[in-house]
Amino acid sequence: LPNNYSLPSGDKIPSVALGVWQAGKGEVGAAVTTALKAGYRHIDGAWIYRNEEEVGQALKASGVPRDQLWLTSKLWNTFHAPEDIEPALDDTLAKLNTEYLDLYLIHWPVAFKKDSDNVLDEELTANPYQTWKKLEEMVDKGKVRNIGISNFNIARVKNLTANPLKYKPAINQVELNFWNPQPELLQWAKENDLLLESYSPLGSNKQVSESLAVPEVKKISRMLGLTPAQVILSWHVQRGTVVLPKSVTPSRIVENFKLVGLPQPLFDMLEKAATSHPPKRVVNPSEYWKLGFDVFDEEW
Ligand code: A2P
Q1: Strands 12-14 and 4-6: what pairing?
Q2: Of the candidates 41, 150, 235, 263, which lies 20 to 30 Å from 88 by C-alpha distance?
Q3: Mutate which of 244, 246, 258 to test ligand 1's pocket (most atoms within 8 Å of Cβ)?
Q4: Does the keyword Transmembrane helix apply (predicted)?
Q5: Degrees to nearest 5, angle at CA 87 with 86 and 93
């Protein structure tokens, strides 16, 4: 399996990251420390996870040189207006104790009015070009090495890239797991030189036990002497995505970093099992945010 993927900038992004969504205060720092000791060099975080300060402290204490780390963060929905972006980024940089991010993503294709309680900014949501232009400026200023998007479906990626971009999105971070494997999006992304990152790769805490109990997963696990989680995470990397498993449990953090290529027939068996049931998305805040539309609607 590839240890990393090359991006249009020439940077190489490690194929496995520690995900820190839902890793709480008082536990996330220890998770980062364990991960770095286990060999991880990629941490996937976000401003809204409210744990960047503790992640930053653990990074600093680790003594791992900055140029050996890959740090991703994400611009929250309330900061899409061009004048709000650099302050939001600076806040993240300060919390992480770093001068630059390796990757900065637009967290959702949804802009909220600043300081509002999820009040939609219709203009910036309909066309994120002004937001993107400011992110390009952050690249030119050296505060960010690569920029990308998250939770964009094909229609929304096309809507963004229809603008005259200086830098194309290098990454789209989306939900990918056994229940929602999105083969069309994966195929389209490959054809369009857009690397996908798999969040909630085990199905997030809601679906993780069901994922690990899938008969094909268990069968492959027995045949290869891997844990069910290792089978699923290996499948993600073999599909050509970056995988971002979240764990705060030391033994799982170590386990999730030891991935191997599955023999083709076993990979095919798992791919078929994942793609031959009706897809079920685990993460969709559209209703919670009272958007009045589904953010993943392909008809949009
Ligand atoms: P915990 O953090 O308590 O170890 P996802 O990455 O799909 O969002 O899944 C995260 C969930 O899966 C968390 O509840 C995490 O629990 C659990 N998890 C992570 N790695 C493993 C593993 N190797 N085996 C079993 N459960 C895991």
Answers
A1: antiparallel
A2: 41
A3: 246
A4: yes
A5: 85
Q: What is the complex's ipTM, to 2 decimals? A: 0.99
* Nearest ligand 1 atom to alpha carbon 251: 23
Residue whose Cα lies nearest atom 23 of ligand 1: it is: 252
Angle between helical axes of 82-95 and 52-62 (0-180°, round to 10) = 40
Q: What is the distance, to the nearest Å, from the Cα of residue 267 to the centroid of all Cα atoms in its chain?
A: 22
CA nearest ligand 1 atom 14, residue:
205
Q: For residue 40, report the distance from its CA to the centre of ligand 1, in Å.
A: 16
Nearest CA to ligand 1 atom 19: 247
Q: Which domains, and CATH codes, for the chain?
A: 9-275 (3.20.20.100)
Local confidence pLDDT in tens for the 300 residues of the chain: 999 999 999 999 999 999 999 999 999 999 999 999 999 999 999 999 999 999 999 999 999 999 999 999 999 999 999 999 999 999 999 999 999 999 999 999 999 999 998 999 999 999 999 999 999 999 999 999 999 999 999 999 999 999 999 999 999 999 999 999 999 999 999 999 999 999 999 999 899 999 999 999 999 999 999 999 999 999 999 999 999 999 999 999 999 999 999 999 999 999 999 999 999 999 999 999 999 999 999 887
Would you give the distance in Å from CA 230 to the centre of its chain?
18
Whether 203 contacts 166, CB under 8 Å? no
Spatial contact of 114 and 76, defined as CB atoms under 8 Å apart? no
pTM of the model: 0.98
Q: What's the gap in Å between 87 CA and the centre of ligand 1?
A: 33
User: Of the candidates 265, 109, 261, 276, which has an alpha carbon nearest to the alpha carbon of residue 183?
Assistant: 276
Q: Write the DSSP assignment of 243-254 as a string of letters.
A: E--B---HHHHH
For the stretch 201-214, what's the b/e string if a residue is b when 16 or more beta carbons lie within 10 angstroms of its beta carbon? Answer: bbbbeebbeebbeb
Ligand 1 proximity of 208 Cβ (cutoff 6 Å): yes
Q: Is 129 a catalytic residue?
A: no
